[in-house]
Amino acid sequence: MSAPVGQGDFTSGDTARRKDVPNVFAIILQRLLLGLLTLFVVSIIIFAAVNMLPGDFAQVILGQGATPEATEAIRRDLGLDRPVVLRYFEWLGGALQGDLGRSFAQANFASFVGADAAGGTTVLQQIAPRFANTMFLAGVTAAIAVPFAVGLGILAALYRNTVFDKGTNVFALTSISSPEFFLAYVLILFLAVLNPILPSLSNIYAGMSLGERLERSLLPALTLTLVVTAHMMRMTRAAIINLLASPYIEMARLKGMTPMRVIVRHALPNALAPIINVIAINLAYLITGVVVVEVVFVYPGIGQLFVDAVKTRDIPVVQACCLIFAAAYIVLNLVADILSILSNPRLRHPR
Amino acid sequence: MADHLLKIRDLRLEGRADETWHPIVNGIDLDLGRGEVLGLIGESGAGKSTLGLAAMGFTRDGVRISGGTVEFDGIDLVNAPLAEKRRLLGKRIAYVAQSAAASFNPAHRIIDQHTEAPVQHGLMSERESEEDAMRLYERLRLPNPDEIGFRYPHQVSGGQLQRAMTAMAMSCRPDLIIFDEPTTALDVTTQIEVLAAIRDIVDQFGTAAIYITHDLAVVAQMADRIKVLLRGDEVEEAPTREMLESPQEDYTRSLWAVRSFERPEKPAPAADAVPVISVRGIDAAYGDTRVLHDVSFDIHEGRTVAVVGESGSGKSTTARCITGLLPPVKGTIRLEGEDLPPDYRRRSKDQLRQVQMIYQMADTALNPRKTVGEILGRPIEFYMGLRGRERRRRVEQLLDEIELPASQFIDRLPSELSGGQKQRVGIARALAAEPRFIICDEVTSALDQLVAEGILKLLARLQDERKLSYMFITHDLATVRAIADEVVVMKDGEVVEQGDKRQMFTPPHHPYTDLLLSSVPEMDPDWLTTLLEERGRENLGDAAIDRMNG
Fold first, then answer.
1. How far apart are CA B176 and CA B86, in angstroms?
2. How is residue A177 annotated by DSSP?
3. Which portions of this protein are annotated as coiled-coil regions (chain B) (predicted)?
């Protein structure tokens, strides 16, 4: 039989049955494959873009007085003289096996101190701890920001067009429009200098206890919370308000339900898809875009490593960082897609 | 009335549009005793729904109560604090909406929505309320009453959802239920099940009800008294039988008269006449799902063939095959004896011109950003090659033919037209191609009865003047009676019966035709009761439900 689609029962009866509800697993599998394909395309773009950066490692390290022979020697050592396509596939093959190559800068340093160039640090060894730190900060921030933003959005929708709603909006917009370093310094001023509650430096290192790590990373996390709250809160509010004119919301009101229940139980479950997507984009930002905050708080995250690598033309590190950033975006969007699909009861419970 | 439940005095409601408040309801008085059913009838825009909601002390956004009182069992609903109103809503006053599919929350199971009111109002535990829901489902003759509640709304058919919503309204055993057009979106066969179920349960629990509808025959079955509204004013009010036998006001009588429009019978086409459209044994499928099987019928010059059946019976799919939007898998379609290519993309411009279509939703079928002149000018230019002044003259002629003065309407946008006017523009657009054959897909079902009658009369006149042939898709048998020459009855993608109108409306019928015909509500207030007795109460509905579920 045709699906009961609103008032159009007899209008679309004939057309509705065409759209057989696809299997959830089929959709998810399709998304996964698409994600992999995207990652592959992105890897090509990254490799091409990084190789097109003006200047190369050899020139940067040797400075202006370098002889062409010396430059050439370093390039040969690093394999930079070989065709780009070949290097791409070597890199891709390595990356697939978890080998992201060797850092030029570290290799260079190693050769200065007399060690064998091949014995330098691998990119993976260099990136892994930094990435773990970044994920830790992103996790702490998400744990604070997501409930905070969604809660605020729900309250703003509940008290829409009141002083509370407008105040929340102004607060969120102000914090998103201010530069991150400014927010960071304001927080340092109030929470570290005037009221020394939290440390203003977040230089965490291996071997620190979890509690200490948490305390150290709280200020950057709060700064980032201010940055990402606005999007999520405003989307939550808008997605909920969008549904308030639906007949089923009117029905809930006419059953005598309280406004809070109407919003949380009747509107929110149907508004999840857009909210999930905005959360995913903001979480991806937390992994990839927090260089400024890392610098201000001297937090040893992946962002600083990335910027340093670009400065020294340390191509393997730059490529690896880019690949991780791209993967973070793709994975988070994939998860958001899958969760959105699962939030749709029509797909979860086919007829 | 000694036992007053609801007392409305001089109620005034206003709606906000274009920055000002416009009156919607102008000073209505309404009384309702316990266990009494009042029918509220009028065309769209009469303020029925707004009044119905105001009887619950509720107004939609952009509507306000500007005067008068609403008293429910001694409680002033206009001035009561929100929290106090919330204690009444759902518990003592309940609401049944027009579209159950839209009014059930898609994210929750049916039974969870059912138990919400009793649990939140503190009347029952969740478990008790679930038990009660199953008993109510059984009483409302839903199939698998113990199991159906645990489905999600999209997993249940429209007619079943409507009954589940009635059960939900009953969950707290309210004193008053507002039914807002609960059967308007349903097929006639399904409508009967829902009407019987509602009447049954309202009787059993002695619930008072306000039954809002635009369908007189329906309200005649349900209400003890009828109140007629016209643009926010009361026209008259009387007990049902009295109202049906001797309506006092002209407007009420005009509502009655609509159903009396009927075209004179036409002579049968000559035996050797070539039909304008001949559908020969077509099968059609959406993907792997076969939706039409061996459909054949002819439509002769100047005649109307009505295609009737429930939703999902394949009426619109047949139309899509004829227009070439959905090429059939098997069979042929002939235009004046000549085979048409199955796919519209392979048809010549002239073949395309001969087959035109008018849609149910004039609202969505007209481009909202084009003026009437542009909408009509496009097919004139495309098919007839007319431009500039000639084109404009032709547009004016067309507007003249559909009885809309060109000077007033040619530069208007669809949003500046009423529903009936939009449908007229839709007709003019089809006429612009000067076709031989027009498919009318439920063209009057979104319109009020008076407006619909105007459209039917217009179509009839155009047919006589231009010898047009119509395929008239409808689920409304009153419309069939009014304008059809021949009838094709479809069910589950097959033609179950066809013949000329008189033959179709005289027994013996195919059992399915019989079910369709006998399901059309009649003005007689005893119609439903008699019909239910005839069909035998016990298996009532189950047969039709089985049919619905295929």
1. 15
2. H
3. none
CB-neighbour burial class of residue B167 (10 A; exposed 0-12, middle 13-18, buried 19+): buried
In this complex, the residue of A1, A248, A254 whose CB is nearest that of residue B56 is A254
Q: What are phi and psi of B228, to 5 degrees?
A: -100, 130
- Distance between CA atoms of residues B425 and A88, nearest Å: 63
pTM over 0.90: no
B100: closest chain A residue by CA: A6
Three-state DSSP state, A274: helix
Question: Residue A141 sits in which domain range?
Answer: 133-311
Cα B85 to Cα B67: distance, rounded to the nearest angstrom: 18
Distance in angstroms (rounded) separating the CA atoms of residues A116 and A125: 17
Q: How far apart are the first and last CA of chain A?
A: 10
Same domain, residue pair A112 and A46:
yes
Binding-site residues on chain A for chain B (CB distance < 8 A): 1-7, 9-11, 13-15, 17-18, 20, 245-248, 250-258, 261, 265-266, 269-270, 345-346, 349, 351
Contacts of residue A52, defined as CB under 8 A and 6 or more positions apart, other chains included, come to none
Of the CA atoms within 13 Å of residue B10, those in its CB half-sphere come to 3
**Which burial class, exposed, middle or buried, applies to A87 when counting CB atoms under 10 A from its CB (0-12, 13-18, 19+)?**
middle
Cis peptide before A350 (omega within 30 of 0): no
Mutate: best of B311, B363, B546, partner A, most A CBs <10 A: B311
Q: How far apart are CA B319 and CA B204, in angstroms?
A: 45
In this structure, which long-range contacts are made by residues B74-79, counting pairs with CB atoms below 8 Å and at least 24 apart in sequence? none
- On chain A, the residues whose CB falls within 8 A of the CB of B108 are 265, 269
Which tokens go with A8? 């159009």
| Cα-Cα-Cα-Cα dihedral sign, residues A73, A75, A78, A84 | negative
Position A11 pLDDT exceeds 50: no
**Same domain, residue pair A150 and A96:** no
Given A13, A18, A255, which is nearest B116 (Cβ)? A255
pLDDT, tens only, B416-442? 888 888 999 999 999 999 999 999 998
Q: Are residues B208 and B317 located together in one domain of the fold? A: no
Q: How many CA atoms lie within 13 A of B495 on its CB side?
A: 18
DSSP B104: S
Where in B186-276 does DSSP place strands (E)? 208-213, 225-230, 233-239
The ipTM, to two decimals, is 0.76
Q: How many helices and strands in chain B, by DSSP H and E?
A: 23, 20
Shortest distance between the Cα of B168 and any Cα of chain A, in A, equals 10
Whether residues A101 and A141 share a domain: the answer is: no
Amino acid identity of residue B300, one-letter, is H
pLDDT tens-digit map of A207-254: 888 888 898 899 999 999 999 999 999 999 999 998 988 899 999 999
CATH number at residue B241: 3.40.50.300
Chain length of chain A:
351
Domain termination site, one of B257, B283, B312:
B257
Q: What are phi and psi of B194, to 5 degrees?
A: -70, -45
- Which chain B positions have a beta carbon within 8 Å of A2's beta carbon? 311-312
Nearest Cα of chain A lies from the Cα of B229 at a distance, in angstroms, of 23
Contact B89 A248 (CB under 8 A): no
Task: Examine the domain organization and report whether A167 and A213 are in the same domain.
Answer: yes
Give the integer Cα–Cα distance in Å for B500 and A38: 62
The side-by-side arrangement of strands in the sheet containing B289-299 is B289-299, B277-286, B330-335, B338-339
3-class secondary structure, B223: coil
Q: Write the pLDDT tens digit of every residue in B208-266.
A: 999 998 888 888 888 999 999 888 888 888 898 888 888 888 888 877 765 667 777 78
Say which of A4, A251, A266 has its CB closest to residue B158.
A4
Interchain contact, B90 vs A256, CB within 8 Å:
yes
| Whole-angstrom Cα Rg for chain B | 25
